[in-house]
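Lab notebook, bench 4. The sequencing result for the construct came back, and we need a structural model before the next group meeting so we can plan mutations. Quick request posted to the team channel:

Model the 3D structure of this chain.
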Amino acid sequence: MIPDTLFSTTFRLASGVLLNLKSEHQPQLPAPQNGKAYMLYAHVPFCESLCPYCSFNRFLFDERKARQYFSSLREEMRMVAKRGYTFDTLYIGGGTPTILMDELVQIIDLARDLFGVREVSCETNPNHLDERLIDLLAPRVQRLSVGVQSFDDDLLRRINRYDRFGSGKEILERVQRTAPAFNAFNIDLIFNFPGQDLASIDRDLRLALESGATQITAYPLMTSPSVRRALEKTVGTVEFSREAEMYEHIVETLSSVFELSTAWTFSRKGKSLIDEYIVKSEEYVGVGSGSFSYLNGTLLVNTFSLQSYQRWVSERHAPIAGKRRFSRLDQMRYRFMMDLFGLRLDKRQWERDFGKPIEHCLPLELLAFEKAGAFAENNAEAITLTPRGRYLLVVLMREFFSSINRVRDQARRAVQSSEALRNPETRLSNAKI
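Done. Here's the predicted structure in token form:
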């Protein structure tokens, strides 16, 4: 049987090549294609403080800069609408999207007016779960996701969350008060932090089940070089030797109440709204500084510089600063990974999309997964996964997102020092991405 480490290493190298972006300002978003469905992602890159394990584009909150940013974000949305895009679904991530609630409400209402958005998912932090959030977002947001990460007070202290967001008990109480107001309420948990053990994970799962959440996303710690350095200083060295055991324990514990929606998302029946917007939609448009778009086989990345972002938008230019055109083989591999992460690959749909059976498209990949014992079924209709196969997809997605985080690292290092994260390691040159 092929060892997990071989899959991990191979895919880490492949992802590094796949996500090797070309720095290039593209002043216009590609036009939409007839008959294609797209999802809209909006990025809000402001936080009250910065977590050491996070690689997303984020800046310490400054109200003046944030309000200027929201104004530019709305203008970029209008530019996207003029290109002819429509969206059924909006996903708002960060950073902390709820950092300025009045501005967030305007973003959601504008998306409905411009694009006909019907379903909204939004992220938030535990300290924002209050009556005002419920009053403003419950009528507008179908799925609210809160980054709990852990209920363990010791771990919350070590990852710089206890003082900002409260104890595990306080977070649980806020979740229990807020969850009933939303059609779908997700809590994020992270496993495989340095020093984390099965007892801590078991307690997190037990409290998550008591929280009233309709969905739990339990994903492994995904590190980039800057994240690993930060964690080594504050928490400890990241190890992967117990990751599979932890994942198996999570699946066993949560499967008694929830059903798997993806390899790491667990939903109550009828309440599934998938957390990863790149999984739910084959193609998507990202608006905001540091957002990603995937359109017609090309990955596009908006500038991570707030100054460049606002300048380009004010000039009616798309704020795209980097791109990577995927080969047809790359597109097929990407689709293969995303479909299987969603637990089922529809072979007939594959043949309609790519013009030939998957066996002719990815023979080596299919052979490798079969040898690894990943497939529960592989017939004329579909491919589904064994428990081992699900974990292998967790490994692949961990490496894929870690590679994206490395792209974010590179982009942040290129941000002008006046915009950096007040961290000497990030105060580097002034390239555009």
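The chain has two domains: 1-20+327-413, 21-280.
Will bring this to the meeting.
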